[in-house]
Please model this.
Amino acid sequence: MQLAILAATAGVIGGLAAVERKGAFQLMLSRPLVLAPLLGLALGDAAGGLALGVPLELLFLGGVNLGGAVPENETLLAAALTSVVIPAGLCARTGADPALSALGLGVCAPLAMLGQQLDRRGEHRALGLAARARERLAAGDLDPARVQLAGLAWPLLTTGVICASVVLASPLLAAMRLHCGPRLVLALAGGWRAAQLLAVAAAIRAMRERRAAWLSALSALAVFGAALLLRAQR
Model:
């Protein structure tokens, strides 16, 4: 019963975030940096959600939907990854540790490209609905917006169903994590760290500022210095 409640929660939040991404409110709630902690909080681990959302936000920082370009769906990946890792971490009593995060990312990574295909199909559906709305308007219907808004049902349902489904599958991910030996856990943790570094590199490349590399290096040194200072004070 508890897992079913979590699945319903993830489905609703993920679906609403997908609707927001398509232009319903434009409050940036669908970005991984915001969505993952909020979804993590709803599922029982906000800190774990934040740990998942930060690298995903950096990885997709340069992805924009302009003209005919349809980027990978960062919202679907962030929602699905959080929806499977957080319940799995609670089930395995490991939390969203690096090894579990790496396993979840390996399972969910193709969803970014699947979301891209779903976006394209959704845009085709939206074009058809727009044509139908124009026909109704020409026929004298002064409220064709209901037809147009029906296009938002596609991202709501597809993302919601996927998020709910991965929550129900999260015990399998928890079992995989518990069956990993110490060496495999260490290797998976290293893979997650590598993914974080890749995300940082992708974010730096996406920046248009010429001094981005130097500013990023200075920021890294500042963080490293702060970490050393905090460690020395313990």
The chain has one domain: 2-233.
